[in-house]
Amino acid sequence: MGDDALDVTLAWAASTLTHAPRRVLEEDHSDVPVKGLLELAKETLLSGEGLSHMSLPVGVNIPLSNLQFICWGIEQSMLLDQAAQASSTCERFKALAMFAISMYSPFAYIQGRKPFNPLLGETFEFVDIERKFRFYAEQVNHHPPVSVALAEGESWSLHEVVIGQVSGRPKSLRMKPSGTVTVTLLPDGDKYSWEPVETLVKDAGTEQCTVYHEGTMTIQKYGSTDHCNISFHKHTFLRSQHDHEVVVTLWNGDDEQGTVLLEGHWNASLVDDQGHVVWKLNAPSQDAIQSGFGLTEFACGLNEPCHEAETASSASGDATAHTKGQIQGRDEQAGNDDGRSGIARVANNPLGTDSRFRPDQRLYELGQYDEADGCKKALEIAQRDRAEKGIAATPQLFEEAGVDEGSPEWTPRFSDYWKQRRKGTLKSLCRVVDIYSCDVP
After folding, report:
1. Whole-number pLDDT of residue 168
2. How far, in Å, CA of 251 to CA of 257, rounded?
3. CB-CB contact of 165 with 178 (8 Å)
4. Low-confidence ranges of the chain (pLDDT < 50)
5. Strand runs (DSSP E) across 302-425, as ranges?
6. What's residue 40's pLDDT?
7. How far apart are CA 153 and CA 74, in angstroms?
8. DSSP E strands: which ranges in 119-155?
9. pLDDT given for residue 345 in this prediction
């Protein structure tokens, strides 16, 4: 077992825990303001600007960064373990298809809201002791927004590149992400990859909001003609009874006739060719749906506060200091004596660019909506100022490694990331820009 082995990381993370991960958000968010979202989006789009150039009000968000949202998408990582253990091509593709579909589960209950767009240079890391995987991600480009993530389990590794693109109409938004998910299964090293489908959000920001995934996703095995297609039904008014339907078809070798493996709904369950339910959506609790943004217990733990990073600024007008004061003040008023401090402990200090330190997102989670809105705008202004001055953050955890089919390929910069984290030497190897420092209005 090497110094960078998964078991070593899990043991290290377990040794630093002082309490069980949180399972719920502490504030009631049933009254999050969303008024004016559609009007603002419409004005921006009609002006010829893309939504990535618009400072959307925080009410359109959930209190997670897109880097954390990507991690939420692998909540059902046990399906990858199942794929690695499968004894046949058919069973392996079934498990991979169920996992690929489960990556869209977070959309089922968040009512058309979206994660915060990461700032350039933002990072996130997570170690799941229960599911036995480790994860880290970085925002490596701003226009277009590009997120890169690497996750590793006992019998698999996952590399994901997400390139965001959003367009819209007065009453709907359409997300057209590109990029690739690549899964390597151990111990044989077989590789599989697929690209995302489009997502349509109708009546965004309203109680009538509905989310649809549309298109065909192909899971392709490297060096083989074996593949399976996941067909997400396209929403049409005349065939609304088929909304959210998915069909998984296996194409073995050069067979002209595919075999249907799975059918069902991405937001509910899937059945196999014998009619047995083989997958169910991991739904959040009713309380979470009504007042917690629709986050599952797993998702609630992704943004749990942790110790302030060494690079966090302590200037009085700084957004980070402002947020820290909000958290401490709330805990003092609550007489928090349950062993959980407002700045809770997570496997030593991550980089100061970790999403958990993002002040606007933290204020939003605490229910300080106006303050979060002002802080979000200040962070965006500070990011533009850094770009104009030539001191913008640059990727520290991933690096470009050529171009594949017109898209940049991103590979990990460190082959021993988790060893460096455990030894506390990662920060000395990175040029960390204080991306969360700004003047709060």
Report:
1. 66
2. 7
3. yes
4. 309-317, 327-345, 406
5. 398-404, 407-412
6. 64
7. 11
8. 123-128, 133-141, 146-153
9. 38
Pairwise CA distance, residues 267 & 244, whole Å: 7
Contact 174, 211 (CB under 8 A): no
Distance CA(294)–CA(282), nearest Å, equals 11
Q: What secondary structure does DSSP assign to 236-281, as a single string?
A: -GGGGGGTTEEEEEEE-TT-SS-EEEEEEETTSEEEETTS-EEEE-
Query: Residue 33 has what pLDDT?
Result: 74
Beta-bridge mates of residue 250: 228, 259
Nearest to 431 by CA among 314, 318, 348, 353: 353
- As beta bridge partners, residue 175 has 166, 199
pTM, two decimal places? 0.89
In the structure encoding, which two tokens stand for residue 108, read together?
């089922």
Query: What is the chain's length?
Result: 441
pLDDT at position 177? 86
Identify the residue whose tokens are 């966090």. 312
Distance CA 221, CA 253 (A): 11
What per-residue confidence (pLDDT) applies to 309? 46
CB-neighbour burial class of residue 324 (10 A; exposed 0-12, middle 13-18, buried 19+): buried
How many angstroms separate the most distant Cα atoms in the chain? 67
The two structure tokens encoding residue 216 = 């065909």
DSSP 179-193: EEEEEEETTTTEEEE
Contact 351, 58 (CB under 8 A): no
Residue of 128, 55, 137 lying closest to 353 (CA atoms)? 137
Q: How far apart are CA 58 and CA 116, in angstroms?
A: 8
Residues 125/130/132/138 CA torsion (nearest 10 deg)? -10
Give the Cα separation of 150 and 146 in Å (integer): 14
| Whether the Cβ atoms of residue 278 and residue 263 lie closer than 8 Å to each other | no
To which H or E segment does residue 163 belong?
strand 156-163
